[in-house]
Design goal:
This protein has 375 residues and is mostly helical. The protein has 21 helices and no strands. It has two domains: 62 residues; 286 residues, no CATH class. Helix content is 72%, strand content 0%. Helix 16 runs antiparallel to helix 17. The radius of gyration is 21 Å and the shape is globular. The protein starts with a helix and ends with a helix. 50% of the residues are buried.
């Protein structure tokens, strides 16, 4: 009878709390958004199921969760906790990214830089709300709309907030088609949304090969803290563009990034155990994350309008919204919103320029914050 009682007390039905129920519902919502609504399913499906895994309660003394030393999930979560998975994802992103749009029109890089304003304004806002400088830096990076970068910086500066920051970053990345269009329409006029841009010029092979090498050297000297992320990003791109390492590039952009995305999503989701996740700080992180993302989107749009004051060949301001590094979703949103005004206007390739610049910009911002905020 004692063994039967002990078994009953070890079951999830016995140990469940209202917090667990709430998180199980949250996991189901993410699964619904990923499967039914097709909002970033490659991210939301693993994270949503991971939330369900992490919130099945179990008895004391059973090493099952990501925070239980010796459990299987603990060792899988090690790659998140120590920032191992994000550089591997950057390697895959680099191997699948074409920087031709950016090389064709380099001035659009400024839009990717302008969008990083959301990171630093949110950093200040988090400080005002009482978060420590290290915590504020980790929260601010959510505005870059770059999940791997947010995880990497949080693992270095505020590992105790890693779960909340990762969930917020990936949630806002997935909700790009919902969050960005209202801001884009609010800050631009119909005539601005109809602006046509000249077709991109053809970029030569030598330019494509030199770009990742030269760009890495320059950006690494500016922000040494971003060496790992930028190094993997540009190395992956060099594998793609060199023309002699197609096997490696193919592995990086397919098998490797898929495996790491699965592990990262499951582990990040499983880290949201109600007992550690449902706190006032987590709620504050989600609020600040939304603010950060909105400011980043608005900053890119407004800076594009400012550039138009000085440019003869006008930029469609919608392209500025792609300065956040949610690749390629924010560029697709630009295309969709632009075509609602003019179905014959194609902005996707133009939007990809600030979009990939945003990836670089958020990594540089993370490197700067890491350097400045490390005790």
């Amino acid at each position: 009878m004692d063994r039967i009682v002990a078994f009953i007390q070890s079951t999830g039905f016995y140990n469940i709390t209202w917090g667990n129920v709430l998180m199980l519902i949250a996991g189901a919502i993410l699964l619904y958004l990923g499967i039914r609504k097709h909002y970033e399913p490659l991210l939301l499906v693993p994270i949503g199921f991971g939330i369900i895994i992490g919130n099945i309660p179990y008895g004391a003394g059973m090493p099952l969760g990501v925070y239980d030393d010796g459990s299987i999930l603990y060792y899988l979560y090690f790659g998140v906790m120590k920032g191992i998975y994000p550089p591997l994802i950057f390697l895959g992103i680099g191997a699948m990214t074409d920087f031709s749009a950016l090389l064709s029109n380099p001035k659009l890089m400024l839009l990717g830089a302008a969008a990083q304003m959301g990171i630093f304004l949110t950093f200040i806002g988090a400080l005002i709300l009482g978060f420590s400088p290290a915590e504020s830096g980790s929260i601010g990076i959510i505005g870059g709309a770059d999940g791997p970068t947010a995880i990497f910086l949080s693992s270095q500066l505020a590992p105790h907030l890693l779960g909340a920051i990762a969930i917020a970053a990936y949630s806002y990345m997935a909700l790009v088609p919902v969050i960005q269009p209202p801001i884009m329409k609010l800050l631009t006029s119909p005539s601005e949304r109809k602006i046509r841009m000249k077709p991109s010029r053809q970029v030569g092979k030598l330019e494509k090969i030199l770009f990742p090498i030269v760009s890495f050297v320059i950006t690494a000297f500016i922000a040494p803290g971003a060496i790992v992320l930028l190094g993997m990003l540009f190395f992956g791109n060099l594998l793609k563009e060199s023309g002699v390492t197609e096997r490696l590039a193919n592995s990086a952009r397919n098998a490797l990034i898929d495996i790491v995305t699965i592990l990262l999503g499951i582990c990040v989701g499983a880290s949201t155990q109600a007992q550690t996740f449902l706190t006032a700080k987590s709620i504050g992180i989600f609020i600040l994350g939304a603010f950060s993302f909105a400011v980043a989107t608005a900053s890119g749009l407004l800076f594009a309008k400012l550039m138009n004051v000085f440019l003869k060949e006008k930029i469609n301001p919608l392209v500025g919204a792609a300065g956040v590094s949610a690749v390629p979703d924010s560029a697709r949103v630009v295309q969709i919103v632009g075509q609602k005004e003019d179905p014959t206007n194609f902005l996707l390739m133009h939007a990809m320029a600030p979009n990939v610049a945003g990836v670089i910009g958020s990594a540089i911002a993370a490197g700067i914050l890491w350097t400045m905020l490390t005790p």
